[in-house]
Amino acid sequence: MTMRIYTTFLLILAVQVASAQVSGKVTDESGSPVPFATVVLLIAADSAMAGGAMTAADGSYRVEGVRAGTFVQRISSVGYKTWTSSVLTWTDDNGNVSANINVNLGVQVLHPDTQQLGEVQVNAKRQLIENRTDGVVINVENSVMTKGSTALQLLERSPGVKIDLQNNTMELNGKNGVMVMLNNKLIRMPVEQLVSFLQGMSANDIVKIELLTTPPSGFDAEGSAGLINIVTRKPSKLGTTGSIVLSGGAGYKEKAMIGINLNRVKDKTTLYGSYTFSRDRSSNYFYAIGSELEPMLGGYAASEFMSRATAAQNSHNALAGLDLQLSQKTKAGISGNFNSSVSAIRMHNDGHYLVENDSVYTLTAESNSKNKWSSIIANGYIEHQLSDHRTINVDLDFLHYDNDYPTEASNSFLSSTGRQAGANDTLFSPLSKAISRTAINVGVAKADHKHTLNNDWKFMTGIKGTFTQTTGRSAISNLVEGSYVTRPASINNMRMHEQVAAVYASLEGQVDASLHFTGGLRYEYSDTQIEDAVTSETTANRRLSKLFPSLTISKELNSKTRLNFSYSKRISRPTYRDLTSFVTPNGPTSVNTGNPLLKPTITQSVNLGFQYSGYNFSVLLSRDEYPIARNQIVYTEDKTQMAVSPQNLTFQNNLTFQTSIPIHIGNWWDMTYTAVGGWRKFSLNYTPVPATRTYFAYTGQIMQTFRLPAALAIEISGYYNSNGYNGSRKTVGFGVLNAGIKKDFNKGGTLQLAFTDIFRSGAIKSYFGKLTEEAFDLRTQVAFHPESSIYHTVRLTYSKTFGVSVKPNQRKGNTGSQSERDRIEN
């Protein structure tokens, strides 16, 4: 019944009345639409204006009521060179454009307003933040702080994005369940490895970051909070071009990065490749103080705990690709990406426990681990134009990830009299060894069909199949009476098979000159099975079939004002690590584990946006059923230890307001202010006492850019996150201020000096036991100090581009794995 209603709705909106018009589309050099460009038709004889329009969010435009004659078309937009056509002529028998004549002028490409001085120097730029019907775009290449930064640092500075490095969580507009994409492909890896990957990824070639809160049906429905798409610069000019980046810095210890990019475009062939190496020696610590019930120590205990960690990470990232124009109607290409990172981590822990029976215990622990991560991503595509109005695209992807994470630890847990806490068993052993090995293989096949119905409307359909196999093995061995013993409860040998089949259809077009419509339906069926790799016993068997509708309407009120409305339904499935009942130690009194009973999160969102000139305002209303909160405190099955595991909340409602305000003081000073905030309400029942909470939370960003003489530019940026909650854990607000200075040497390249967290204010404080009673009556305050809050962190970066070229015709599109690489979180 639901399918019938939506299908009827789409067919009704597809019916339209033909009208006389001149239409087309405006894009930039990468093929991205240019919204709010001015399109005018001038009478060739005297340059008088015959008609005009403003481009919509997708770059399309339509000029109506134009009389027959001879014209010149002119298109202009801030940051681009004005485009002027040759003389255009069309007539009918009566000398007028009739209701049955539609003139489509095709796609016009605007080029940046640049000056060629051996290398490209941009004199005019797009706004830092742009609002779209499906989300927000941050043009990070316009920021002084981009050069020398990492992709993770760019995300931390993006409006509405909050990253917790201590617990490896990521939020968008106050919600978990965020999927991260790189060039429209999901980065399908565990969260802690995703963070490592983004830390080792140079931001120098990142053009923009798209925060998609209501993505259309062509994207996978995965990601209840939305999608974050990181878009990098693509080869787009005939000839040989490239760039080189050298970066060095210091915080706790040295930081370095070297990257090279080479592109060759000739005739019908595009060849591109890049390599980046980065090294980062970092340090952090957290301090916790509180009280809890400690059955193994004999009662309630006041505790104080300090953990210090140092890490040395080396990362390699290589990319190569080839695009071919096989014929006038057929394009094809292959690409491959290799990433490898090794982190040597050393951790020292000190703990003190004052038990109610007046016993005092001291914990001292050391651990050394080496986290090795590698990935290989291969893609092949073919795109064929069946006719002037129909195009088919087929993509095949293969993804392989491998993680090896061995750890060795020693600890001493003694009373004030020198007596060992507990018994000489595996929980209180002085020496332990842990292994953790995960391999993930993903295959993706996707086919899309696009049918242009007429000048105003196009219909798109697609099918997609995703096949995932994950194997994981982990175990903890403890030294007991001279021999290493492995507790059965600490052994995990799991295998996961998952198949996701999807089919979608969408209709997009202009209802009239000012009203743009996009509506779609996506159906997904998933089958997930997790079993013991040794015994073949099934521990989780989940089948889910859902229909995910999406709708976007954009109404242009006048040349400066636009209203946007969007609706979407999305899902966040539990990950492999979420569902498996693995056990890794936090110490004698607590463990990390999974939760096989987790349910998927279903989210429905409605977004209403208002744009006036460069100012953006929006309201987002959403409801999550069973949102997943990670790193929550519960009892182990035998209630002898705390378990840190993911849990389902009952629901979460969000009413979120978002605004972006650019202020242009003059040619030397620009400011941009953004704010995201609103009311949130959630309920949970996995704690000993259920709880419901309504609160107000917000994030705010500010960026100021000063352009000085002698080709100097200074940027000051910062953000503040207010108090909030992750499940039952309360977090305290904090803010960070950054600064950078850049010098352009024209043919000599660019030099940039950047300072991160100038006032070292980025420590994150959180509380357990503030909202409700926790397991073991835990009441604790934790303060996590990332490296930049301990040491002054500075980077010096030199970059240079080279090559002279012109723009060719080039493919731009999604590949089959665009939505397949983020859900296998840790």
Question: How does this model look, in words?
Answer:
The protein starts with a helix and ends in a 24-residue tail after the last strand. It is built from four helices and 50 strands. The chain is mainly beta. It has two domains: 110 residues, Immunoglobulins (Immunoglobulin-like, Sandwich), CATH 2.60.40; 674 residues, TonB-dependent receptor, beta-barrel domain (Maltoporin, Chain A). The chain has a 28-stranded antiparallel β-sheet that branches. Strands 11-12-17-18-15-16 form a six-stranded mixed β-sheet, with no helix packed on it. Strands 2, 3, 5, 6 and 7 form a five-stranded antiparallel β-sheet that branches.
User: What proportion of the residues is helical, as a percent range?
Assistant: under 10%
Low-confidence stretches: 1-19, 115-124, 807-826
Strand segment count: 50
Q: How large is the share of residues in beta strands?
A: over 45%
**SS content category:** mainly beta
The biggest sheet amounts to: 28 strands, antiparallel
Short account of what is shown:
With 826 residues, this protein is mainly beta. The protein has 4 helices and 50 strands.
